[in-house]
Amino acid sequence: MFDLDVVTLSRLQFALTALYHFLFVPLTLGLSLLLAIMESVYVMTGRAVWREATQFWGTLFGINFAMGVATGVTMEFQFGTNWAYYSHFVGDIFGAPLAIEGLMAFFLEATFVGLFFFGWKRLSKVQHLVVTWLVALGSNFSALWILVANSWMLNPVGAEFNPQTMRMELSSFQEILFNPVAQSKFVHTVSAGYVTGAMFVMSIGAYYMLRGRHLDIARRSLTVAASFGLASALSVVVLGDESGYTAGENQKMKIAAIEAMWETEPPPASFTLFGFPDLKTETTRYEIQIPYVLGLIATRSLDKPVEGIRPLVAHAEARIRKGLPAYQWLAKEGGRAHASIPAELESSIKDVGYSLLLKRIRPDIENADDAQIHAAAASTVPDVPVLFWSFRVMVALGFYFIALFALAFYLSSRRNFRKRWFLWLAFLSLPLPWIAAELGWIVAEYGRQPWIIDGVMPTFVGVSNIPASNVAASLAAFVLFYSALAIVDVALIVKYVRIGPHPAN
């Protein structure tokens, strides 16, 4: 029976709101830049059809932007309601990029979105173009600061634990900002958003071509989307490789779980293209491997091994044992005004997070036996089949996008968008970027479990001390509210797509 305790319910609620919110984020990123490109063409050529296209896609952008704001605000409130101890423990660090996102990026974006819609007759062409580019810039800045905060949870740099306050405290904002995980994750995520925006424009343009409506705008939109989408899809794959390398450096267990790799893979490590992970035997049946690829992705070399699940569990067990003396010292001395970590415990204080994994098994963790320590170490293995298949479907879709946009680019160069099979293919591909994006977040966040801060705080430690019934009630409310929003969003998008572009005014 699945135990719906406060930890599970809190995780489920945040997962629901995050995945739902991310239905809107990638389209905002992609459409904002496409709007800027189309309006730039309008300003350079003076042709009214480009202004008409910009205004039409801007209407759909506005609907999506409003839904993104409505669903994004509730996510941040959950840190205070459902994850109170996490917020207390790392609030000084985690709150800084979120505050900058609100003050610098969100307000910038929201302000210029208003000018975009109401400034067509009040601003000159160049002034309005600057506004549109600032909307795109604000959207990307917003994603930057959110991903900086999220990446710190995956690779907690620039912070130190203070035994006097029993909290993590900021030591270097520069390290947090230039966290290698944040850099690779930002460029990979925004590129995925650009693919989503390009697919959205191309699919709706294909719909108009199939219906024989608004052909001038449809052809131009398809042309822009084809070239922009091809460049973005290629970027996603290239930058995804960089994300794989940073994960190989900082999240070895995630890489091992994605590969369903129970034993260390000797160099040159092979990538498992296909197979069926078997948890009972801890093997991968019917696997098809590609030589060298995993070594190049995870280690950037052909002479380094990639660690497997079993040795990583043994390493986690060693860290649990090493962290127990430091935990016992903190239990007695932590929180005092003059608490200072003894020299003999300085090396083990970083392993206290591992020892806290035992809290899920017994409260008096200092009395844990060997079997319980091993069970706590085994809990560091995320759900292997979920990660294995999510990653492979995501990657397969990534290569499909490259092929589709390359075909669209070729047809665009030949000025031949009349092939109905291609138009149907483009139209039916509309939901695929969202599927790939959601799978990407599942790989990133589900693969981080059991940590809310990797190696520092187990997820179950960070929850609020509230009844599970309270979280269940708010979860039910979110499901109802977000379902209603989904219906409204789809209805509005469909309505304005059916209406189509209006002549520029």
TrEMBL record:
Pfam families: Cyt_bd_oxida_I (PF01654). Its main location: membrane. It is a multi-pass membrane protein. Coiled coil: none annotated. The chain crosses the membrane at residues 20-44, 56-73, 93-118, 130-148, 186-210, 222-240, 389-410, 422-444, 471-494. One of its GO terms (molecular function) is oxidoreductase activity. It comes from the Bacteria. The keyword Repressor does not apply. This is Cytochrome ubiquinol oxidase subunit I. It is found in: Cell inner membrane. Belongs to the cytochrome ubiquinol oxidase subunit 1 family. It is an enzyme of class 1 (oxidoreductase). The keyword Plastid does not apply. Its EC number is 1.10.3.-. Keywords: Cell inner membrane, Cell membrane, Electron transport, Heme, Iron, Membrane, Metal-binding, Oxidoreductase, Transmembrane, Transmembrane helix, Transport.
